[in-house]
Amino acid sequence: MGAATGVAAVLLASLAILAPSARGLNRGEFPTGFLFGAATSAYQVEGAYLEDGKGLSNWDVFTHTHSGDIDDGRNGDVADDHYHRYMEDVEIMHNLGVNSYRFSISWARILPRGKLGGINSAGIAFYDHLIDALLQKGIEPFVTLHHFDLPYELETRYGSWLGAGIREEFDHYADVCFQAFGDRVKFWTTFNEPNLFTKFAYMLGAYPPKRCSPPFGNCHSGNSQQEPYIAAHNILMSHAAAVDNYKKNYQAKQGGLIGIVISMKFYEPLTNSTEDIVAAQRALSFEIHWFLDPIFFGEYPKEMREMLSSNLPEFTPAEKMLLQNRVDFIGVNHYTAIYAKDCISSPCELNTYEGNALVFATGEKDGVRIGKPTALGGFYDVPEGMEQVIKYVNQRYENVTIYVTENGYSEYNNNNMEDMTNDTGRVNYLEGYLSCISSAIRGGAKVRGYFVWSLMDNFEWRFGFTVRFGLYHVDFVTQQRTPKKSAKWYRDFLTGSGPMGEVQTLRAYS
Ligand SMILES: *[C@@H]1O[C@H](CO)[C@@H](O)[C@H](O)[C@H]1NC(C)=O
Ligand SMILES: *[C@@H]1O[C@H](CO)[C@@H](O)[C@H](O)[C@H]1NC(C)=O
Ligand SMILES: *[C@@H]1O[C@H](CO)[C@@H](O)[C@H](O)[C@H]1NC(C)=O
After folding, report:
1. In a 3-state reduction of DSSP, which class is residue 33?
2. Where exactly are the structural domains of the chain?
3. Segment holding 340, helix H or strand E
4. Which CATH class is domain 36-495?
5. Given the CA of residue 394, which atom of ligand 2 is nearest to it?
6. pTM for this structure?
7. Exposure class string for 148-181: b at 16+ Cβ within 10 A, else e
8. pLDDT tens-digit series, residues 232-255
9. Could you report the per-residue pLDDT of 385-406, keeping only the tens digit for each?
10. Which residue out of 297, 397, 399 has the highest number of ligand 2 atoms within 8 Å of its CB and is therefore the one to mutate?
């Protein structure tokens, strides 16, 4: 990558929009049964935050009590109003031609008070209707149990993931979902990006329960050097218990698969100094190995044990036993590659996402960016990073089956819909990343699905509604959904019905 990447980015940016097949990207390159979808999460799209017996979630309370921590001060009270408009949204997916939809269940909608209260039947009914409507249209539900939001009562009782009592709560919630939906849901993931949200929640103090300590931030309370690892430990054991339950009690009769989704930046050394090369490995360890080494090898990575010593919990023999249940697949959320600079040999700013690895991440080398910037700081269009990260996971984790569960491109919101729907940057991005997935598959990686983040513009956590990730534009006043150029491009790719469709058909028959 490096210099060559910069050239590639310039080339990409200067190409006019071409139909997918014109660049040699063809659905036929992907294995049969490959899932092509789009993704959302409950808090980001559902709205209806007080309706039909739903309990308050940690994010409902956080966005109301800490609106200053959200760029536009807004919240997900209404979001995309998907709770009331899900039939229209299923129709949109049908038009798009996807064969899968990745969404998350709102824990607080199903179990408003956790284990203590009863099951909210209206919550079950909502997901029943959604799942049935998807299946009617030939769209496979791909379900996340935990995508950042949980019942507020559990946040107050356990500090969310800090108290070990949360493990039984998650196990119970997962069991309720397997029982209610597992006859129709064949793809489950326990957690979305636990390696990312624990840092934002317990190290940087940017997500609820907003805990941290200097130099990472100034929160009311917390310990940035320790709590992310305690929370992660409870998450890993919650994950393991849910996988154990699914494998023992549901998998044989329901015939589904279960995995976990990890956020994966790809780190390139800033220079070819030994220090930076080792720093990039360290950053990958703190990003990827932190969760996947315990799941595959029953142990935290060596680098983390050495650097964190007693701040990193240890697995008891009983915990190691539980971890031995293999996941059926790994979900990879990948958006960007970035350079890693060593902070041991020379001091640098450490109150960042990579700070605990003593790494400083930067998108620039000698004034040249690693790829075209997007609306999110530190996120660049570097399609080769996708191939690298897939190869990396494939090699380290024994040829595991991979689903790319998120990949997408953000733009700053301006209120000009014509401009927002003319999203050529997103089309270039998706085309580049899909080509690199295709290349990784040719190289032997077992990738079996791909989900664009996101189906539609939505509430983007601490950025509120200031950035847009959707294939569909959403007008948050009227709730009107409008396909962007990228939606049309994706549909052409999936159906071969675009301007190049005839060519593809001819090729298929020649
Ligand atoms: C790598 O290091 C060598 C000297 O050790 C230098 O000449 C070369 O330019 C460096 N390459 C990159 C890509 O930084
Ligand atoms: C992974 O796949 C490669 C190539 O097919 C094979 O050589 C290797 O033994 C596999 N590794 C494991 C751990 O299954
Ligand atoms: C869309 O954007 C491209 C540049 O990215 C521009 O060349 C084109 O004219 C725009 N089309 C419309 C309809 O605005």
Report:
1. coil
2. 36-495
3. strand 337-342
4. alpha beta
5. 1
6. 0.93
7. bbbbbbbbebbbbbbeeebbebbbbbbbbbbebb
8. 999 999 999 999 999 999 999 999
9. 999 999 999 999 999 999 999 9
10. 399
